[in-house]
Structures are given as structure tokens and as C-alpha cells.
Write a structure and sequence with these properties.
The chain is mostly beta strands.
């Protein structure tokens, strides 16, 4: 898979402050804003907001 600036790798850190992170790719062409998905955090044991860290 080719690496480019259109779909960079981003780390998602939880707002709950636990040490768990998600790693994903984001399309900057479709959505240039920072993403804040609500996903499951196994360290906390519930769904929390994950903030993007580039």
C-alpha cells in the first residue's frame, strides 16, 4: 500500500486518560477536521470519545 499525505496514519487517544490507543488512517480529502470517534476503551471498560493526535 502506498503511503501518501491524503490518508495519514493517526493515533487516537482516549479522553478518559487511560493508556490505550487506537491507530487508524484518515482521509483528509473527505474530512479535513480532526476526528473524534466514540469507541470502546478496554482499560476503562466502556465507550469513550477518542481524540485525534497527529
Amino acid at each position: 500500500m502506498a503511503r501518501n499525505e491524503i490518508r495519514p496514519v493517526v493515533k487516537l487517544r482516549p479522553t478518559a486518560g487511560a493508556g490505550f490507543t487506537h491507530v487508524t488512517r484518515e482521509s483528509l480529502r473527505n474530512d479535513p477536521d480532526r476526528m473524534v470517534p466514540r469507541t470502546y476503551d478496554p482499560a476503562v471498560g466502556r465507550h469513550v470519545d477518542f481524540g485525534e493526535e497527529r
